[in-house]
Amino acid sequence: MSKVPTLLDRYRLMVTMRAFEEACAQGIPTGELRGELHLADGQEAVAAGMVGALRSDDWMVSTHRGHQHAIAKGVPLEEMMAEVYERVTGLSRGKGGHVHLFDMERRFSVTGIVGSSLPVALGHAYACRLDDSDSIAVGITGDGGTNTGQFHETMNMAAIWKLPLVILVENNHYAISVPAEEVIAGRGIAERAEAYGAWGRRVDGTDVEEVAAAFAEAVRHARGGSGPALLEAVCFRFRGHYEGDIDHYRKSVVKRRMREEGDPLAIVRHRLLERGEVDEAVIAGVEGEARDRIRDILQKVREAPGPDAAEAFRDVFAEVSA
Amino acid sequence: MSENGKQAPDGRQLNISQLIAETIGIEMERDPGIVFLGEDIGYSGGTFGASRDLFRRFGEWRVRDTPISEMGFAGMAVGLAMSGWRPLVEIMFVDFIGVCLEPVYNAIAKNRYMSGGHVAMPVTIRAAGGCIGVAAQHSQTLWGMLAHLPGLKVVAPSNPLDYRGLLAASIESEDPVIVIEHKDAYLRKTTEFPFGTEVPRGRYTVELGKANVVRRGGDLTLATLSTMVEKSLAAADVLHAEGVGVEVIDLRTVVPLDDATVTDSVARTGRLLVVDEDYLSFGLSGELVSRVVENLGPSAVKGVSRLANPDLPIPAALSLEREVIPNEARILSAARAIVGSG
């Protein structure tokens, strides 16, 4: 996206993201998808906050909870949903599935291993330097990922070589079931940047405008040749870690309150109305359009065939000896 | 062997580490997309000297001394490859690959498959393996474990000609390849090897997945690789004097495994002995025996036998290491036993 998106643009994106996740969730009760599905409802402001600062020639490496990031990077919705539903029309013809999304045209990939997205993004950032381009790389992880060796190795290497890398941490307070504050030493995640002489900042990850401003600054820092930037966005994950998660480790009162007070969509909707930029009808129109669009995509995906049996045997190697 | 600007051998007295460094230099000159990452490959020219002079020639951005962060730089190779570069990664000792197996077997090995063929992973990993008296954590070969993981090609050269040709083919390959160099080879002169000593100065490749029949014989097929080829040839000389013809096959690569060449040989000899420096169980020797028996049918095979590390960590004392690893005497015993048994 070349121009800076308006708040309504971001809202359109966020409702699309929410509708996309809901369409994925529909595959669980029908048995089309198994429980190994990680949805990001509640974290839309983090993904939508990246739009505008990133260019199509920037790289993004995401996590097991990556649909929203992919949407922010411009990955086509139908091909992505078809991959989530393991159809032959999917990004990888059904061989990657929802935690292994690859779209090289949009310079987007996912690894399903927590923390491992960051060294991959580091490699992209190193390539940007080798290519002598002003592209950057964004590596995304969660609060849990900041306790992996990969996080620290990546921060260190990006800093010593001054690589154009933004590490975006979605701190949704839980590493699966373990509260972040019980397993993260020191003053916090953003403060870990100091140890590496890097730019570090924490923002309210439920506020898309705050995220967008801080993320744009992180990108400017990285693109400007000053080395890595670490942005921690504090947010809520409304659903369980995965769709089979009974989520008994969070009190229901806490879960209710985060939906009532920390829903990034409600925050934007309220703000748009409060500022008088748009009225209820415009908002309802945006919401309806997103819902209809995703409903149509889901229908097309459901009508698409699965991969044929021969597909399982392709693509292990590029070169197969006779 | 495919040739490309091949020049005649010039009688130089290179050792294998020099030959490897020169080969990497030739490849980096040929393809400006190759970027080399690893510990101590820059200032020091490699712990085993196998990257000498490259830092000076290609600069710090293409020959990168990394921190001791295997997970980090192995994962970097994934991003570099997706960005269109061809990473060459040195893992100093193959034993250290455990530190970074995650990006190796989950990303480097699987990204082509998981992306439906849209992502190329032309990554080459070089690592030192094998016993030279350096105990349990610095002596393994591990090619069986690595070969077990789908998506990785696994190479273990035995002689100077192959050290250059297989490495060049690995670097050129669109697929991920792990080359396990034997530590015992690094400081040996090319002329000290029993075969493959005539190394052209120019570039050539040796195709991955083609075994090399290095000695003909009609009574027993002996399949092996890496330094065990030389030990097996020495045993074959002794057996020849005893009137036993041993066909020695250098497998060269574990993946792809050229079981066809071994099967053809066993179809004539009727007997197969696999000699492997790696662990015995669940590895190369069992795999090769199974394939050959499956290919020929059990009635066509008079005997099979395996000689390998009997599933023991490699002990520090050299006297104990010798008990664990196949040597010429044990190869002779195993060969005599299988030939004598029928």
Summarize the structure.
By secondary structure, chain A is α/β, with parallel strands linked by helices. Helix content of chain A is 42%, strand content 12%.
Describe the structure.
The complex is a heterodimer of chains A (322) and B (342). With 322 residues, chain A is α/β, with parallel strands linked by helices. Chain A has helices spanning 7-25, 44-50, 67-73, 77-84, 117-130, 149-160, 180-183, 192-195, 208-223, 252-261, 264-274, 280-303; strands at residues 59-62, 102-103, 108-110, 137-142, 165-171, 174-175, 178-179, 199-204, 229-234. Chain A has a single domain, classed as 3-Layer(aba) Sandwich (Rossmann fold). Chain A is built from twelve helices and nine strands. Chain A has a seven-stranded mixed sheet with strand order 2-3-1-4-5-9-8, with helices on both faces. In chain A, helix 9 (208-223) links the parallel strand 8 and strand 9 (229-234). In chain A, helix 2 (44-50) crosses helix 9 (208-223) and helix 4 (77-84) crosses helix 12 (280-303). In chain A, 52% of the residues are buried. The mean pLDDT of chain A is 96. Chain B is an alpha/beta fold and 342 residues long. Chain B starts with a strand and ends with a helix. The relative contact order of chain B is 0.12. The longest helix of chain B is centred in the first third of the chain and has 15 residues, at 16-30. At the A-B interface, helix 5 and helix 6 of A face helix 3, helix 4 and helix 5 of B.
List the helices and strands and how they pair.
The complex is a heterodimer of chains A (322) and B (342).
Chain A: H1 7-25, H2 44-50, E1 59-62, H3 67-73, H4 77-84, E2 102-103, E3 108-110, H5 117-130, E4 137-142, H6 149-160, E5 165-171, E6 174-175, E7 178-179, H7 180-183, H8 192-195, E8 199-204, H9 208-223, E9 229-234, H10 252-261, H11 264-274, H12 280-303
Parallel strand pairs in A: 1-3, 1-4, 4-5, 5-9, 8-9
Antiparallel strand pairs in A: 2-3, 6-7
Chain B: E1 2-4, H1 16-30, E2 34-38, H2 54-58, E3 63-65, H3 70-82, E4 86-93, H4 101-108, H5 111-114, E5 124-129, H6 143-147, E6 153-155, H7 160-172, E7 177-182, E8 203-205, E9 212-215, E10 220-224, H8 228-241, E11 246-250, E12 253-255, H9 259-269, E13 271-279, H10 284-296, E14 303-309, H11 318-324, H12 328-340
Parallel strand pairs in B: 2-3, 2-4, 4-5, 5-7, 6-7, 10-11, 10-13, 13-14
Antiparallel strand pairs in B: 1-8, 6-12, 9-11
Helix pairs in contact in B: 1-7, 3-4, 8-12, 9-10
